[in-house]
Write a structure and sequence with these properties.
The chain has 16 helices and eleven strands. By secondary structure, it is an alpha/beta fold. The protein is globular and about 70 Å long. The two termini are 14 Å apart.
Length: 470
């Protein structure tokens, strides 16, 4: 496997051309994409033109000539951006998301827009208007979600790097199920400008990569203040790649009791977390049990807050301004007909949940109470980080489940996010790193959580786990 860092080094040195690198990856896409369906759109012509431009021009970028896959909820100028929904049919954004512009400036070559659960609502990439993505390790199983296409693209070798978005675990959970690295940054570290919103106080863009070093490299490129995003943090990013070899000697690691023993955690997944704790202890970390009591309420609070914000954000899809329009006798009927035809069942379910939680007479009992629980979660994490530098827990309760196994039972699907949601509610960073396999031979990811802006610590801890596994 050639890493993104190796590709960029070779292109900068003139040892390889960006076009040659791209054609190698397009050949892999041609061979396996029909089975995996990682992409909604493979951008062959645009990618070839970009690779030629890199070869003919500035090769000094941090990602010179590196193929990158983009989740299809990131605006790309002039390129269809669908959020895997019929309601955005025919829409081509007139601008690039900030992360897309930063990647292009660094010399990256975009190979395609990846499939996702519609509007990023799901944990399996089965809620797509364009059909499900399959796990490259076992085509009968899901890749996780909602960024399943991005995770699958990296796992299948279609691109060494991909971007996803994480609202309740949508980067980390598919990373775990596909056996790649996935990182949700601190809220505000990466600009959300040009990310089609699901839940604005929770959404964050982050990297997928085959290695921890590549994830660190990609995060260095996309992070940093953006005046176009009012929630963007205005502070410098500490170096990430240069500190990866610093190790964990003396680091305080807490094994997060509430999530290790949460409902539905499979015994084989729990064993991998225990093995990761031992590996960190062997590397010099001080490992002990940690508690974040309110984390056990994360799922309940999230499924009120996120749908409420989605109900507000998705009101803009009305058939008037862009995307799908189903004509009717008057505006109200046109709005209703467009939304009925354009949104899938899971999106409708969450809009209805959110609208109910925000409605008169229920706001204080549901949405207001969920925000109080969110405050408790933030306080409990802050207390835990007084005693620990990093927390360790599973990423997903199980390995990849079979396609169709959970689509009829929304609650069983929602439980896939039990370990990832608390970090979104707190706004803190978290990373999933592959750490062996379950009893079925499929990948297991373990999750490292840290306080705000602790990405450098999380990445060097993940590098130790990566090394221990190898």
């Amino acid at each position: 496997m050639t890493t993104a860092q190796q590709i960029a080094d070779a292109v900068r040195a003139g040892e390889r051309s960006a076009s040659e690198v791209l054609e190698e990856h397009l050949a892999v896409i041609d061979e396996r994409e029909g089975d995996v369906h990682a992409f909604n759109l493979v951008m062959r012509d645009e990618a070839r033109a970009a690779a030629v431009a890199v070869d003919a021009g500035d090769r000094t970028g941090a990602l010179a000539g590196v193929p990158v896959a983009l989740k299809d909820n990131l605006c790309t100028r002039g390129i269809p951006t669908t959020c895997s929904s019929r309601i955005l049919e025919g829409w081509r954004p007139p601008y690039d998301a900030t992360v897309v512009a930063r990647l292009a400036a660094a010399g990256a070559v975009f190979v395609g827009k990846t499939n996702l659960d519609e509007f990023a609502m799901g944990s399996s990439t089965e809620n797509s208007a364009f059909g499900p993505t399959r796990n490259p390790h076992d085509l009968d199983r899901v890749p996780g979600g909602s960024s399943g296409g991005s995770a699958a693209a990296v796992a299948a070798g279609f691109a060494p790097l991909a971007l996803g978005s994480d609202t309740g675990g949508s980067i980390r959970q598919p990373a775990a199920l596909c056996g790649v690295v996935g990182l949700k940054p601190t809220y505000g570290l990466v600009s959300r400008y040009g990310l089609v919103a699901f839940a604005s106080s929770l959404d964050q863009i982050g990297p997928f990569a085959a290695t921890v070093a590549d994830a660190a490299l990609l995060l260095e490129v996309i992070a940093g203040h953006d005046p176009l995003d009012s929630t963007s943090l205005d502070r410098p990013l500490p170096p990430l790649v240069s500190g990866l070899g610093d190790g964990v000697e003396g680091l305080r690691v807490g094994v997060l009791t509430e999530l290790v023993h949460a409902e539905g955690i499979a015994p084989d997944v729990r064993r991998r977390v225990e093995a990761a704790a031992e590996a960190l202890a062997d590397a010099g970390a001080k490992v002990d049990e940690a508690s974040v009591p309110a984390a056990s309420f994360g799922l309940s609070a999230y499924y009120l807050i996120a749908p409420a914000e989605a109900s507000s954000n998705l009101a803009r899809y009305d058939g008037v301004r862009y995307g799908l329009r189903v004509d009717a006798e008057n505006t109200a009927e046109m709005n209703a007909a467009t939304r009925t035809a354009g949104f899938g069942p899971e999106v409708k379910r969450r809009i209805m949940l959110g609208t109910y939680a925000l409605s008169a007479g229920y706001y204080d009992a549901y949405y207001g109470k969920a925000q109080q629980v969110r405050t408790l979660i933030i306080r409990d994490f802050a207390a835990a980080y007084d005693s620990f530098d990093v927390l360790l827990c599973p990423t997903s309760p199980t390995t990849a489940f079979r396609l169709g196994d959970k689509t009829a039972d929304p609650m069983s699907m929602y439980l896939n996010d039990v370990c990832t949601i608390p970090s979104n509610l707190a706004g803190d960073p978290a990373i999933s790193v592959p750490f062996g396999a379950g009893d079925d031979g499929l990948p297991v990811g373990v999750q490292l959580l840290g306080p705000a802006l602790s990405e450098a610590t999380l990445l060097r801890t993940a590098a130790v786990l990566e090394g221990a596994l190898q």
